[in-house]
Amino acid sequence: MGTVNWRKSAIRVLSVLMAILLWVYVNNEQNPVNEQLISVPLHDTGRPESYAVGDMPSAVSVRYQVSRGRLTGLSESDFKATVDLSGVTEGEQSLPVEVVPPNGVQITQVSPSMVKIYVDRIVERQIPVVAAMKGGAAAGYSAMEPLVQPAVVTARGPGRILESINQFVITMDITAATGLIEKELPVSSGSKQVQVNPKLVKVTVPITPLPSKIVNVKPALSGSPADGYEAGEVAVQPGGVRIAAPSGILNGIDWLPTEPVDISGTKQDVNTVAKLVLPSGVSLVTPENVSVSVQIKPVKNQPATPDNEKPPGTNQQVP
């Protein structure tokens, strides 16, 4: 009797195992396991308020297995990848990445499985702000030193980043300006981890007229006319132009040259427009160019040498 019961129990167990194996076989045939790779955004948890974290990647690659029937509809939002920062200390360290998959999904690989981060203490510093000017004032005007208000702002962020910042530089465009310019401009640190207060500063740039006067123009020529020809009268219109410069420079200038006018090999008069050559620090008020006319004329024959100027030993007519 005991032998019969044992046989019946063994048959029941074997039947259950066969049923399980058959279910697994059918399930795998109908819904075979697939391996997929997905990029999952990486987030942190437990970050202390007084610390900043740098160098952490924005995402990790996750390789997972899932049945074909479960594959449809899965996206990166179904996975959760995190790094626990609750126990971090200041400096460089490596922390594990934890990935929580959706139901029915098995994680086979996470890359990177460990992330190297740099933990830095949040500090505040007072940093000066300076203005750099872009472009130049209008001709005949000079831009004075810009005034920034406030000249110092408070920066809050990772100590490692703030240590590398000596000043904030903002750019003020003064192109063709003829009067006082005032603008509110943003102060940027170049880092999303650094906050600046205030975010806007007022920049003022005074634009003042330069001293000016009228100076003569002297045309410059280059080259020589064709053989048998020479340059004659040279005329320039206008003969004087108004220039502007700081007094120390302006007082030392009485005339301006033109760029060289080429008369090489010519047999005809030359009429052209030439630019003026301006010394450093000098701006031209009006006009920018001048007209230059160069007369080209044949070389006159040399007069015969008079008898009384003939060299000794030459024949002379006797009266």
Q: Could you give a short description of this structure?
A:
Helices cover 13% and strands 48% of the residues.
Overview of this protein structure:
With 319 residues, the protein is mainly β. The protein has 4 domains: 1-30; 32-112, Beta Complex (RNA Polymerase Alpha Subunit, Chain A, domain 2), CATH 2.170.120; 122-209, RNA Polymerase Alpha Subunit, Chain A, domain 2, CATH 2.170.120; 212-298, YbbR-like domain (RNA Polymerase Alpha Subunit, Chain A, domain 2). 13% of the residues lie in helices and 48% in strands. The termini are far apart.
CATH superfamily membership of the largest domain: YbbR-like domain
* Secondary-structure arrangement, i.e. CATH architecture of the largest domain: Beta Complex
Main sheet overview: 6 strands, mixed
Helix content: 10-25%
CATH topology of the largest domain: RNA Polymerase Alpha Subunit, Chain A, domain 2
* Name of the CATH first level of the largest domain: Mainly Beta
Number of strands: 25
Strand content: over 45%
Uncertain stretches: 309-319
What's the overall geometry? elongated
Mean pLDDT: 86
- The domain tally reads 4
Distance between the termini: 183 Å
Computed CA radius of gyration, to the nearest angstrom: 45 Å
Number of helices: 4
- Structural class designation: mainly beta
Topology pattern, helix = H, strand = E: HEEEHEEEEEEEEHEEEEEEEEEHEEEEE
Descriptive key words:
mainly beta; 6-stranded mixed sheet; 5-stranded mixed sheet; 4 helices; elongated; disordered C terminus
